[in-house]
């Protein structure tokens, strides 16, 4: 349009503005709602940008990276001993489990194997950190639905597990106990009896949570049939851990992969559920916690005697090569791909964390659900922010 | 009706826990929630941390030779060491005079420390020990830099060595940790 006078120009602007107003009034288009980064239901700084049509979620994008700490790059300028203390901080609620795959990968490169007693103690602490991690989830899932009691029960009983971990390693959250070729120290006197008592407490806690939540009609209504992930989708998105087992895939790295950890020497069971909904994910994790307490009991019974450290040089230089070891961490498959060039520190470390792959499915599973269910589904997928961003 | 039993089950757990907290001595005795609770009223009563707990690092000044191993292996370089050489009398009569490292400064900045314990582990002369003490918070962050004198004072709180569980073949260390 060529404006011939000021009057015409003003008339044109006014007509455009009126048109825009009409458009605004008629546009029932989608609303963008950011869930996070500071939302209390997201366990940390994960931002989920959801596009809403009324109460329905049309589109949801997980946006991680608010807590990126650059561990993969940091490992390039640290020695192996210093890295174990760094990787403790990846999944901070399942603390000890983070260092095990790293140390196993480094041991494979060095071609040393820790003595049996060290491997057994490692596995005991590994399972105890699984209990500490998942019991937090069991309580937290109630909070997502507005039930405050289970989380207090969880913190009460989880404290005992952390105390037991502290009594051995010296650190509640950052044990830094694994060494290449074994462990830092042996168990203190009286620890085994106390741990068995602690495991009994945890089994009671599991029963309590089962009574509190599983049978509750509100819990059932909010979780059954919500956030269903079919088997093929779960496999396609690369889920791992309890999220995958809740979708009916019988897959557990503790049993399926040949590792030096003595899981093959005791009897235990992998729990699966066929429904794939939020309830199934909660149920599988509950059974897993109970199973983990039984595993700890059996391992404590059969604990072999012997040294806890293999012969390794004082200054550890890992020979050149590449190794990938993954273990079944509380949240899923966690793996370290170490590239070594024969130095005191690795050349490059790729850290495969379970939460990062598990939240990839968020954009699929949140499509078409209601806003309140977003919180339950996110809660039932169970991620730890440090594990996503590392 | 199936739903009702679910509620009742949950309420029973809550009620049981409340009873255990309020009446730890049984219903016939007066309630004592202080005894039944699992929390600790911190400044008045204190929880005892485990002897291995990594609370604060203490220094034995006479054993330190300023070799800088701890300072170099610290992941965040929070140990500051300075020293100088002094002439010491010879070990045997008629021998050559030795030169010994004398420690001038040994500071640990607890505002940076990650409590990983690598410095304690690498120390070849057993001059560093962990103590489970944890009460050293400061209103100013600069005061968290503990100097030689303060680190030496922590040594009184280092616990004795505790025995191992049966089946352990680790050599029992004579020195406290």
Describe the structure.
The complex is a heterodimer of chains A (about 400) and B (about 180). Chain A has helices at about 5-25, 70-75, 80-85, 100-110, 115-145, 150-170, 190-215, 215-225, 230-235, 240-245, 255, 280-300, 355-360, 360-365, 370-380, 385-390, and strands at about 30-35, 45-55, 55-65, 180, 180-185, 320-330, 330-340, 350. Chain A has a single domain (about 80-355), classed as Orthogonal Bundle (Cytochrome-c3 Hydrogenase, chain B), CATH 1.10.645.10. By secondary structure, chain A is of the alpha+beta class. The longest helix of chain A has 29 residues, at about 115-145. Chain A is built from 16 helices and eight strands. In chain A, the strands form three sheets. Chain A has a three-stranded antiparallel beta sheet. In chain A, helix 5 (about 115-145) runs parallel beside helix 7 and helix 5 runs antiparallel to helix 12. Chain B is of the alpha+beta class. Chain B folds into two domains: about 1-35; about 55-155, Alpha-Beta Plaits (2-Layer Sandwich), CATH 3.30.70. In chain B, about 25% of the residues lie in helices and about 20% in strands. Chain B has helices at about 1-20, 35, 70-75, 120, 150-155; strands at about 55-60, 80-90, 100-110, 130, 145. In chain B, strands 2-3-5 form a three-stranded antiparallel beta sheet. Chain B has a two-stranded antiparallel sheet with strand order 1-4. The longest helix of chain B is centred in the N-terminal third of the chain and has 21 residues, at about 1-20. Classes of the chains: A alpha+beta (about 400), B alpha+beta (about 180). Chains A and B meet through helix 3, helix 6 and helix 7 of A and helix 1 of B.
């Amino acid at each position: 349009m060529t404006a011939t006078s000021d009057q015409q120009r003003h008339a044109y602007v006014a007509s455009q503005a009126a048109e825009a107003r009409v458009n605004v009034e008629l546009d029932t288009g989608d609303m963008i709602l950011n869930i996070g980064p500071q939302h209390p239901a997201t366990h940390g700084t994960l931002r989920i940008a959801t596009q809403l049509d009324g109460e329905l979620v049309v589109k949801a994008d997980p946006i991680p990276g608010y807590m990126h700490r650059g561990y993969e790059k940091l490992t390039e300028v640290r020695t192996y001993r210093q890295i174990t203390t760094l990787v403790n901080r990846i999944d901070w609620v399942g603390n000890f489990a983070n260092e095990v795959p790293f140390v196993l990968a480094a041991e494979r490169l060095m071609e040393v194997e820790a003595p049996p007693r060290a491997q057994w103690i490692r596995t005991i602490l590994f399972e105890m950190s699984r209990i500490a991690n998942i019991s937090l989830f069991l309580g937290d899932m109630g909070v997502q639905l507005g039930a405050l009691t289970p989380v207090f029960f969880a913190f009460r009983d989880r404290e005992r597990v952390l105390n037991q971990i502290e009594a051995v390693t010296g650190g509640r959250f950052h044990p830094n106990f694994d060494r290449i070729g074994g462990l830092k120290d042996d168990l203190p006197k009286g620890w085994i009896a106390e741990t068995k008592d602690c495991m009994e407490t945890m089994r009671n806690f599991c029963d309590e949570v089962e009574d509190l939540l599983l049978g509750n009609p509100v819990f059932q209504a909010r979780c059954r049939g919500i956030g269903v992930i079919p088997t093929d989708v779960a496999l396609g998105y690369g889920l791992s851990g309890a999220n995958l087992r809740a979708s009916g895939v019988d897959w557990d790295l503790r049993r399926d992969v040949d590792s030096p950890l003595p899981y093959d020497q005791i009897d235990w069971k992998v729990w699966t559920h066929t429904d794939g909904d939020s309830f199934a994910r909660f149920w599988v994790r509950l059974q897993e916690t109970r199973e983990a307490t039984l595993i700890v009991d059996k391992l404590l019974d059969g604990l072999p005697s012997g040294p806890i450290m293999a012969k390794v040089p004082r200054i550890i230089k890992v020979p050149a090569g590449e190794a990938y070891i993954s273990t079944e961490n509380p949240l899923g498959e966690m793996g370290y791909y170490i590239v070594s060039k024969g130095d005191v520190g690795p050349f490059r470390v790729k850290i495969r964390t379970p939460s990062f792959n598990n939240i990839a499915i968020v954009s699929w599973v949140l499509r078409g659900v209601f806003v309140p269910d977003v919180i339950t589904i996110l809660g039932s997928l169970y991620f730890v922010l440090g594990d996503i961003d590392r | 009706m199936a739903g009702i039993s679910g509620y009742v089950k949950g309420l029973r757990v809550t009620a049981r826990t409340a009873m255990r907290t309020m009446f730890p001595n049984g219903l016939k005795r007066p309630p004592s929630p202080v005894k039944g609770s699992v929390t600790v009223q911190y400044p008045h009563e204190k929880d005892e941390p485990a002897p291995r707990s990594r609370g604060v690092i203490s220094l034995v000044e006479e054993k330190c030779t300023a070799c800088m191993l701890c300072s170099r292996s610290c992941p965040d370089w929070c140990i500051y060491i300075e020293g100088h050489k002094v002439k010491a009398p010879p070990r045997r009569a008629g021998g050559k005079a030795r030169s010994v490292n004398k420690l001038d400064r040994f500071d640990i900045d607890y505002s940076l420390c990650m409590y990983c314990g690598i410095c304690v582990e690498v120390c070849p002369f057993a001059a560093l020990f962990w103590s489970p003490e944890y009460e050293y918070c400061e209103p100013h962050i600069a005061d968290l830099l503990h100097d030689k004198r303060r680190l030496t004072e922590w040594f009184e709180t280092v616990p004795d060595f505790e025995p191992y569980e049966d089946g352990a073949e680790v050599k029992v260390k004579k020195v406290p940790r």
